[in-house]
Amino acid sequence: MKIPVTTIRLPTRPAREYESRFDREQSLLKMLAIPITSVAIASMITALPIFTEEPLLPPLGLLMFLSWRLMRPGLLPVWSGVPFGLMDDLFSGQPFGSAGLLWSLAMLFIEIIDARAIWRDHIQDWLIAAIVIAAVLLGGLWIAGMAHAAPGPAVLIPQIILSILLYPLAVRICARLDSWRLAT
Amino acid sequence: MAPPKHRRPGFSRKAQYGLFVTYVVAIAGTMVAALLLAISVADPAGFSALRAAGAEITAPVARVFSNVRRSTQNMNATVAAYINAGSQNAALQKQAEANRKKLIEAQALRVENARLRGLLKLSEDSESQVAVGRLISSTASSTRRVATLSIGRNFGVERAQPVRGPSGLIGRVIETGPTTARILLVTDAENLVPVMRVSDGLPAFSAGLGNGTVLIKPLNLGESPFKVGDIIVTSGNGGLYPPNIPFARVIKKTSDGALAIPYADPGNTPYAVVIRPYQGEARAAQQAVAPDGETKEVAE
Q: Where is the Rod shape-determining protein MreC beta-barrel core domain (chain B) (predicted)?
């Protein structure tokens, strides 16, 4: 009797219900795409129908970017502030290139700190993030003021405070995403 | 956290050069970004195509969320209407009685107005609308007050067209994409609107403060003539915004003007009407001789 090919290829024992628990590789796509996508989506949040009378919505793209940088040093290259910043500029309404410049300067600033303060804890990272957020927001206002008429810096105070308070949440989200990113 | 290993590349020349190159690229990238920024500061409309592309990409999601938001608001209003039905009915009847008298007066005034206009042979191009859309997003995290409109060039929206809502002036179109347009709100510090006080036509200018209020500055010098509660409408000067669009209500008197809150709240406006620039032909003729941003000597 002729046996069809398909039956020959079927395993004789039942299929394994589990995969090997060791020597598995992380998905390279996931490792690369998750940080990039999370920052991009956070930058695009401002395109949702959120209307505020004054600048109040925290710069979520910047928060996400800083969290990745401070939580996982070495993951984002030093030059990554430029492409991420330029993408943020497309949605933020600032003059094009403003976040590209400011985020890149922030990256270089954190790189310098990395060489000085080597062992840091979460609170110190938060302090660094607070300085960078305030500097980037004020710098953004200054740049917007060069291109157009702009309001005084006092209008930014609620946004700066809110952003600094939201940084730990951004780090939590990053940590969850990171464990998903590195899961095998 | 411990410093990552890449900072000490060891004896490998390749790793050392690789590390060095990332710094070179970072600094070069910073300079490129600074250059792009300089270009966009010199020519604010320069990268509008890129921004329009960004708005087009996110517009579908924004439209969906905008619909969800609107239907939730409608639902809340419907439920509240059921609960308040009895008391509201009584109050509305009283109000309707009061309004009837005013309506008759207004009708008489309208007839009289038309007769007087006919006597004066006044003809003005009436406010003509281009298209009706919705505001689907705003730059909530930037100091610029710019909103995105759900329609663009596909409905004939062009630059420098005024946009109004049912309750008042919203702003003007500054950039257009294929299916979206960006609107500079009246609360942006760059948006100057010629206005007047509705009671006596006192001419003034309005400038946004970037925090939801506008500063009303009268043209004449001296002490601020405004009172809290004064109603401000557009005056039609300059030929861009049509006159008599409700604009703002004065909430505080300052030494040289007044603070006012615009009537149109971009977060709570059901639709936005794009209208033709007031005295469009006159403005087009003026633009043909001396375009905006290019002041040149006009020869006789």
A: 136-256
Answer yes or no: do A147 and B40 touch at CB < 8 A: yes
Nearest to A75 by CA among A87, A67, A83, A85: A67
**Residue A76 with chain B: CB contacts under 8 Å:** none
Radius of gyration, CA atoms only, chain A:
22
Q: What is the pLDDT of residue B127?
A: 56
Q: B266-281: per-residue pLDDT in tens?
A: 877 778 889 888 877 7
In a domain, A3, yes or no: no
CATH 3.40.50.1100 applies to domain B129-280 = no
Domain regions of chain B by residue span:
92-123, 129-280
Total count of domains within chain A: 1
The distance of B16 to chain A (nearest Cα, Å) reads 15
Residue type, B97: E
Q: Do A49 and B55 touch (CB under 8 A)?
A: no
Question: Which contiguous run of DSSP H or E holds residue A83?
Answer: helix A81-92
Is the complex ipTM more than 0.85? no
**Does some domain include residue A16?**
no
Token digits of residue B246: 């409700």
B positions 110-169 inside 8 Å of A (CB): 135-144, 146-148
Residues of chain A falling short of pLDDT 50: none
Stretch B72-84: mean pLDDT = 82
By Cβ distance, the residue of A50, A55, A120 closest to B143 is: A55
Domain assignment present for A155: yes
Q: pTM higher than 0.80, yes or no?
A: no
Full domain range(s) for residue A157? 27-182
pLDDT of residue B68: 80
B30 and chain A: CB distance < 8 Å anywhere? yes
Half-sphere exposure of B165 (CA within 13 A, CB side): 22
Do B1 and A60 count as a contact with CB atoms less than 8 A apart?
no
For position A178, what pLDDT does the model report? 93
Structure tokens at B250: 């004065």
Helix axes B13-42, A98-116, angle to 10 degrees: 150
- The verdict on a CB contact (< 8 Å) between B207 and A57 is no
Whether residues A92 and B187 touch (CB distance < 8 A) is answered with no
